[in-house]
Records
---
Amino acid sequence: MKNVNLDNYFARKMQKRLLICYINTTQGNFTADSLVIATGGRQFGLNVIPQTPGLVSINVDRNVLPNFSELSGISLNASVTCNNHTFKDALLFTHKGLSGPVILQISNYWTVSDEIIINLLPDIHLIEKIAAWQIRNPKAEVKNLISKYLPKKLIQKILERTDFTKPINQYNKNQIEEIAKLVHKWILIPTGTEGYKKAEVTRGGIDTNELSSKNFETRQVKGLYFIGEVLDVTGWLGGYNLQWAWSSGYCAGLVA
Ligand SMILES: Cc1cc2nc3c(=O)[nH]c(=O)nc-3n(C[C@H](O)[C@H](O)[C@H](O)COP(=O)(O)OP(=O)(O)OC[C@H]3O[C@@H](n4cnc5c(N)ncnc54)[C@H](O)[C@@H]3O)c2cc1C
């Protein structure tokens, strides 16, 4: 702002109840009549939805599967459900738990103590397969047959609690259903996530009800804008978060 009588300028602004910002930065001090915040900020009395890491790997109690870390590196296509949201994509076993796109996606819907349900063979109906195997390969072991579709190391651990060494024709209906459940409906309660250090986004943030949905100006303070990830807007994997940051910034930039 050049050649402006600041006293008059601010007096006029105050009469109009418009925002006057004094910003102290390492690059100097600035004054402005509108402010776009793209960093996170809470000092304006706006409602903030609690923040948690999103698009992030999850940790799993090592007792869930014996020697869980031995599975590290295994990847497969799975579907994962949490709180009525389901994604199907690559799943990766890590030393501490689970990762891969399908886990990053579902992590946006997980909160502490929620369970996740993993279908390790989403494209196969295991009960029907086993029925067919009982006719075609009656003497084969179930783990050898399932290992056509899943890594043997994994299937061995998943089925460890059942007696999976018998020939397939010796399993009754209930036992087959139990095996199918372990594969199609593996239920886990993650112990936590890998946290902000590894998260791609922050869930939560400034409540969107506080803002105009057209230009992201706050309803309470004229001239104050919030855009991008600082808002309670979290996208899926696939570039949606960057798109949101750029698009909301553009809309605010048109008027700020
Ligand atoms: C590893 C990783 C991978 C990602 N991959 C993708 C992807 O593939 N696709 C996608 O859509 N999204 C991805 N994201 C998310 C995406 O990068 C963010 O959602 C997006 O950059 C948010 O933009 P923003 O401008 O709101 O905030 P940011 O990009 O976080 O920018 C905020 C800026 O504010 C500065 N700042 C913070 N506090 C202060 C302060 N007090 N004073 C001064 N400056 C401050 C920060 O230094 C930073 O430069 C990824 C994120 C990470 C971490």
---
Amino acid sequence: MIAALCWCVMMLPPTTMPGESYRGPVPAMTAGQRAMADRLRATVTELAVDIGERNLRRPDALERAAIAAERYLAESGRPVTRQPYRIAGKPVRNLEIEFAGTESPHEIVVIGAHYDSALGCPAANDNGVAALAELAHTYRGRAFKRTVRLVAFVNEEPPYFQTDAMGSVVYAKRCRERGEDVVAMLSLETIGCYSDAPGSQKYPPPMDRFFPSTGNFIAFVGNVASTPLLKRTVESFRTHAKFPSEGVALPDILVAGGFSDHWAFWQQGYAGLMVTDTAMFRYPHYHEPTDLPDKIDFDRTARVVEGLAATIADLANR
Ligand SMILES: [Zn+2]
């Protein structure tokens, strides 16, 4: 309640985003989008069904997920680098590929997703790695003015969330220690649930007063300090994708805004966003054993990921 009041005081009305959310009928799927939807289904099925729950409670499954993520990232044609560390004596690792920038290589765009899952959850939707795999595939042979890194993080989920054992915390600290200029970080989160049913979208109050009640959009969520990046990202996505979108900058006191790996970059003073279907505010299977591929709208996910690929390239070519 206190958080909601603070948001009212600080954020009424919410910061206006550039451009307009797409309205009207979505165009027919292109051949490229259809192929991407098929690949997304295969990736999500491998992680959520063949491997299933993947975390340090099931270390063999976590290792299989890490090996799968390495294979997805290698689709880029770039070498996959491991960032190993230990938690209570157990080895874990983040995984990374890099496209060195051609004009401003010291300016780094980090796109991340976590490959672990919550306890008891197969995480079909809670699985940004599937989108990360599509970016690796799409960017094969590409070059960007700024450096682009695609990173698969371990240990995003509880009990590691927002602790020193969280993969993105380890990674973001290393960025700061190296003095790296991370100009943008996007965390790909749950992005597979969409509905055209009125009332399908819920919010923590008071956001329900300002945002749509139909859960058919992709959301970009940042903190106030990340507002310039948020606006650039939303503007670019709206230019490149015929898909409904919303953007919001939340004060840090609203903890839901920090529910992913971008939070780790905020702690190091970097700008970061989460790309999300809003998770538990739309998706009833969030962190449940029922988060399975049959709940995922792969066609709409492909439309979103295609738009993200163009948006990220835009951020990386400024
Ligand atoms: Zn999760």
---
Amino acid sequence: MKTTTDLALAHIAQLQPYIPGMSIEELARTYNLDPDSIIKLASNENPNGPSPMVSAAITHDLAHSNRYPDGYDLYASLARHYGLETDHFIVGNGSNEILDLIARVFLSAGDNAVSSQYAFFVYSLETQLVGATNKIVPAINYGHDLSKLKEAIDEHTKIVWIANPNNPTGTFIPYPEIHSFLEAVPSDVLVVLDEAYYEYLTPDNKVETQGWVDEFCNLILTRTFSKVYGLAGLRIGYAIANPEIIQLLQRARQPFNVSTAGLLAAQAALSDQDYVKTASHANQAGLAYVTGQLDSMNIPYLPTFGNFVTIELIDVPDVCQKMLQQGIIIRPLPNYAMTHHVRVTVGLQSENEAFIAALREILAITQPKI
Ligand SMILES: Cc1ncc(COP(=O)(O)O)c(C=O)c1O
């Protein structure tokens, strides 16, 4: 007799599920802690929350929650913000939904998608979910090796997934190298350039890649309101690509895939670019503090371009467990087989200090005398 699992499609039954960071609520339930006392540095969220303009925008319209959402205004705002037409955008329930749409529209059994070892786990998950094959290319210094990614493309390749900066490693490929890569990739292979952490890049690294989507008809940029904009809980992200790709993705999405609250929040957040700058500067200061402290403890970490730092530790389960007992959530990386690394999001300065103090205590490294 067949089990229910036998009834499932084999490639789905064999999926390794995505393991998210523990939530504040779950830790509070587990250790009977006050949720307000918990420090969460596990999911690369903006610790300051969204722009104050967001809550005003959402609460204003709560009374109309009986109506289905209308995305017109957000599409118009994105188009204005980027200086492109609205037909270059698709908005999703987080950029994860966009990754899912891309896989469902373009991949099936017999196709393959190329990605890097240590690249954001959702790429390989989405590829497997639709029955396509993952071609995973070894990383170079924990980052993407563009020449190996290019070499891996074969006649069955439909997509190359790239995260820049990458999560969980924080690595970054300078944009001129990505531009050369795009010139070298055949135009019938899609390149998905996931820029979830784009706004955290410093001006010397940033390039306005939205201008590239008319140059490369096979380029899809994905961005999100979950990170610097502080709207992770409202689930809103988007893609920028040429209209032909966008139309195909639009066919596959659910009619009302994003809530009214999410749409209004994103529009308000997008209009407050001063907030984005302030949050990005705060992140740089937080990163400088955390990495400076790690240096002083001689703890290795990967150079990072995001709002998190990935730290090398001898006993990851022990450190994570002791952190949890102290009400601090950091992120082990089982999905990536990075058994000697943890990823720690930059928090508020007080949270960063609490994390460093806990790490010193757990590893028995004393504070240097000033
Ligand atoms: C590289 C990368 N891409 C995409 C996402 C998905 O974000 P969201 O679905 O919240 O937009 C994340 C979230 O952590 C990420 O790190």
